[in-house]
Amino acid sequence: METMMMVIGSGPLVSCDGSRAAAAAKEQTLVNKTSSSSSSSSSRLHSKFKPATSVVPSRVGVFWGNEKRVWDFFGKKFVFRKGLKTGVQRHPLTPSKLAIGRFPKGVTTTVMELFCKTDTEHCGAIFEDVPHVTDWLPDLQTYPNPLKFNPAYSAVKQYFVENDAVVTKDAVVKMTTPWEGIHFRRAGPREKIYFRPEEVKACIVTCGGLCPGINTVIREIVCSLWFQYGVRDIIGIVGGYRGFYARNTQTLNPKVVNDIHKRGGTILGTSRGGHDTMKIVDSIEDRDINQVYIIGGDGTHKGADLIYQEIKRRGLKVAVACIPKTIDNDIDIIDKSFGFDTAVEEAQRAINAAHVEAESADNGIGVVKLMGRYSGSIALYATLASRDVDCCMIPEAPFYLEGAGGLFEFVYRRLRENGHVVLVVAEGAGQDLVAQTLQSNELIDASGNQLLRDIGFWLSQQMKDHFSKLYKEPVTLKYIDPTYMIRAIPGNAADNVYCTLLAHSVIHGAMAGFTGFTAGPVNNRHCYIPIARAVETQRRVNVSDRMWARLVSSTNQPGFFHDKDLQKRNVMIQTENGDNDFTEDEYETNGDSQVNRYIDNGSENLNTEDAEQPALVTTIPPGDPNVSQNNHAP
Fold it and tell me: Mean of the pLDDT values across residues 1-28?
């Protein structure tokens, strides 16, 4: 009988005599016998096994996947259920091991051990797993992965990813609790797949704004499905989400996509809005599509999650896999988004042009507006790479124009010192200042995003008026907006390689039966992240960490706001990003609220009817303080 084991915790189970081989055999026997006697297996596990460390097991329970139970540990209730944040525990002791055995015929047996050194010490980890088609179709047949017989991969050692392989979210941990933290399932090919390649009908759709590298992702999805798995039925949905029900499809094969990576944009077309969950799923069902690959940003991901939920409700064998696309690099958790490196590289051309124009004129001012609706990552990295920028303004760092320490005073001083000045501003920066001047109502686009006012043009006009009236000196100002030039170019070499890895990751995940996930690197290891988790918060630039300090030391620009404002804004951004770079005092005032919010969000609608799948949720300890006290640190 074939069994898949997944263990997460402080250490491997070992036999009391110290033999790992004997322990593995006994553990296998234990899990197999739980199907006939839950009470006997519970006592057997408690008496014959202990953790590799000196921790003493305190209580053991057995949970059946076919039954709905609430287990009582030390008088406290544990409720297990499926989905994101799937388990909730309400007492200081934390589960540190979770072993899952999957058997044929859909019977799932779970043995959970509860270990704790003291009544108040946490010793567990959070595993945020992604859904699987067997969650609602437990009797699906598996097939051998065709990569076993692919000559390109036959010589690769340990090419298949083990089912218990996870990726930790936090690379920096404490030595006292190195196993704690959030973990995601590692991406990669599995030995068994849940879709017969000749029966697969895959579709690809691109939504939202343009970004360098989209065509590369499309090409690699098509070529990987075709050459690695032997899939021959692949179509492209034209025109974004609305293309599912309002447009024709495009047949895709390696010949069609052969050289599209050399072009910018997307060959499938894109649009904002147009999401109608019922119509989209109806189209998927009518066309017999069983793999859906969606390329888009946070709004697209939210729509993809609704599609996955409706597919699950209907009980369809369809895998929904996403590839995160945002040129602003504002999707949380993953290291970066594809197209970001290309955008930073291309932004150098605009900054260099502005510098040449400013340096060649008397009192020359060059203003460059870059992408960054809510996150100023492109402006930050482009400024650091350029070294020609005098001041960088991003949405996370508010600024003001007039008065002591304001932008106008800084520009005037730089003009007196150097004869020219170069400013970089992200499109989302200073929107409050523009709104106060124009006094116009806020508008939104089809995706629900706020329509931003042109901060670059407004700022240029304000500086022209200020210097002509106050100083009676003419300035030569050049305003450059390379936004659409950057969006429309193909990906560079680094992004092309990255897009290839993303495409391979989502294909392997979909063929292995995973669904409702997005793929991306976490600590340089690709993994699968639940869609809802990926778009739960947006990544923002932390203006009190070392990277922003490096920029300030490079430009020597003013801070524009007081220390109290900086601390308040930093705590807000850290709370949104889930950073652990708190000092101990900050964690006492803010960390507990994060943990309580995490548990409370996961415990909504708790009832025994939801108790179908075990899961593990623990609190997150504070990380070591990691905030630079020296703004001039390299």
Answer: 38
